[in-house]
Amino acid sequence: MTQALGGSDVVLRVEDLRVEFPSEDGVVHAVDGITYEVHSGRTLGIVGESGSGKTVSSLTTLGLTRRQGARVSGRILFEGQDLLTLPEERLRAIRGNEIAMIFQDPLSSLHPLYRVGAQLVEAVCAHRDVSRAKAREHAIELLDLVGIPDPARRVDAYPHEFSGGMRQRAMIAMALANEPKLLIADEPTTALDVTVQAQILALMERLQRELGMAIVFITHDLGVVAEMADEIAVMYAGRIVETASAARVFAAPEHPYTWGLLKSIPRLDAPREQELVPIPGAPPSLIRPPSGCHFHPRCPYAQPDHARVDPALASSLEGEPAADEPGHLVACLLHADVRRRLWRQLAAGDTPEQALVAVGPFQESA
Amino acid sequence: MTAYIVRRVLWGIALLVIVCALTFVLFRVFPTANPAQLRAGRSPQPKVIHEIERVLGLNKSLSTQFFDYVKNVFLHFNLGYSYYSDESVRSLISERLPATISLTLGAGVLWIVGGLGVGILSALRRHSLLDRLAMGGALVLVSAPEFWLGLIALFLFAQDIGQWRIFPGAGSYVGITSDPWQWFTSMIMPWFVLASGSAAVFARLMRGSLIETMGEDYIRTARAKGLAERRVVRHGVRSAINPIVTLFGLEIGTLLGGTVLIETVFNIPGVGRLAYDSITTADFSVIQGTVLLAAMFIIVANIVVDIAYAYLDPRVRYS
Question: Which of A129, A157, A177 is the last residue of a domain?
Fold first, then answer.
């Protein structure tokens, strides 16, 4: 992940980002040292369960966790400047202008008492010195761009007069108002019907092609990420546990948590007898995260010392000459060879227990 | 919308008839002092009392009296005559209306501006010293009876009896046309005292409502758009104000009720004072007139509030 991919520019580089929230029960370690890059014209998919820190890390990028009393460390570099140290006023000039964000629930994310057009006009006028009439024209163009029929009339509608899909289109139009270089999409399709979901994803892909912006796509849905992402970062308990190109993550995932995510998606092409394998247990507490590898309490392959040793995010094939994708990083204490044998069994349809038996006893720790 | 307004107005008129009936039952059917006896002076001859009863129509059956009254009010806009002074109730009320209007309008402005302003500041600086002081003060004002606050205000600040002789005291009211400055200074204490309770209620409501809306997703969107914080707050206030508007219609009744006490404490010759005096003298047609006026005002205010609400919230308009 550290090197430029295909020569494209790094738009956003997040380095060792940590976000903590003091609470009455203790400090919540929402984001626990994550590093990633986003390249222009490409899409990074951040995948994880709710509470894995994916939303908090993105809100922090825009400085939106500041007033919640978050303690933040690390660096967020956008065009050479560290957004974390930028004063609020300078950051505000970047928000909605060079970095825009869309959210999960488009109904609650739009102001219910303002017309859609007025909300678009406001987004334009916040960053450009244009007349309201000009901004309104631009708003109509934007609604047209995102495929809202009859935009000249719809611009005066209220959000509740729009369908769910149209509301998300309007949100996207608002995010694109100032042609951002980076769009952060936080579960933009989760609240939508599947058919509408596909339309919104197609729209985002088209707009990315036309406008060349980078996208950070946050989701818990691997199916959506397969459609959208060029690179994928899998987050668990505030950390990135695996990151690679999208193709690589689906073809040769290395982390047991990624396996769990992949095995728990229903597939239309799988035989009906083949049962889904949910990941056992619940996401860990972020106030007192598990010792050692954070995933060990839920990992079917965990060894005794995994509760003590904290794995670092490292090249998946450390020390092996056949590293065909150097950008593939994984934070797992299992030996690379064991991981590959386990995945081969799982990919063939074994349950974790069957895979363990097939692979046989193995020496822990790479 | 027109059909809705017509329906509301018709209901309002029906409600006024019901208010008439309730007041009638309360002051005429339930045992009260006999107005004829009160008017006849000390130890009157029974035939004097009978004569007065005949003149005032008190010897007719209660139902006839009631229907005569309702007919006069709603068909001839005639509120009857005072049992006490023979003056028409309408002219009694209209003479005193300017004082009450000055009192309620001024207090209303203080109530809305003060209540909402303090509520907004408290919500935005939650847990600050200002917030704690404002909410503590609001709690005191909500709990304190207005007449007591009025007496305390006179005791502290009145020019005649006060500890700090700053404002004109009780009985200093003059009409705005005769001496605007005197009018203004004499109204300052009554305005503040009358507005205090309602303003305190609104400050607390506004604070709660704004804190809630400032946590909404669309506020996050407003910030993510890069709007200046002033505008973000405006988004919040715009939503937070809606539930408050509904309560405005209810609270206006409290304010009008307060005028009776405040006008009595500060000796302002208004409708509230008229109502108080007429109750002490069992002057039924005046009681009825003031009650009807207040009821009508509350009904109209509530209709206006409901129409305003439809205007403020587009979602109501369509459902």
Answer: A177
For strands A214-219 and A81-82, give the pairing: unpaired
pLDDT tens digits, B264-273: 999 999 999 9
Contact (CB, 8 A) for A221 and A232: no
Expressed as residue numbers, the domain containing A114 is: 108-177
Q: For A306-335, what is the mean pLDDT?
A: 78
Boundary of a domain, candidates A142, A157, A177: A177
Structure tokens at B75: 């068909």
Mean pLDDT in chain A? 88
Q: Which residues in chain B are closer than 8 Å to A161, comparing Cβ atoms?
A: 318
> Mind listing the pLDDT tens digit for each residue in B42-100?
788 888 888 888 888 888 888 898 888 888 888 888 888 888 888 999 999 999 999 99
A97 in contact with B at a CB cutoff of 8 Å? yes
Residue A13 lies in a domain: no
Residues in chain A: 366
Burial (Cβ within 10 Å: 0-12, 13-18, ≥19) of residue A215: buried
Q: What is the pLDDT of residues A85-94, one digit of tens each?
A: 999 999 999 9
Q: Would the pLDDT of A158 be above 70?
A: yes
Q: Tell me whether residue A205 is in a domain.
A: no
Residue B115 distance to chain A (closest CA, Å): 23
> Which residues of chain B make contact with A126, given a CB cutoff of 8 A?
225-228, 231
Task: Report the SS3 class of residue A224.
Answer: helix
Q: Flag if B224 and A122 touch (Cβ within 8 Å).
A: no
Q: Is residue A5 part of a domain?
A: no
Instruction: Report all structural domains of chain B as residue ranges with CATH numbers, in order of start.
Output: 2-76 (no CATH), 94-318 (1.10.3720.10)
Mutation for A interface: B124, B218, B241, most A CBs within 10 A: B218
Closest CA to A152 of A171, A138, A163, A166: A138
3-state secondary structure of B305: helix
Q: What is the pLDDT of residues B107-138, one digit of tens each?
A: 999 999 999 999 999 999 999 999 999 999 99
Q: Which band of pLDDT confidence, cut at 50, 70 and 90, is reported for residue A322?
A: very low
* Structural domain count, chain A: 2
Is B220 within 8 Å of A100 when comparing Cβ atoms?
no
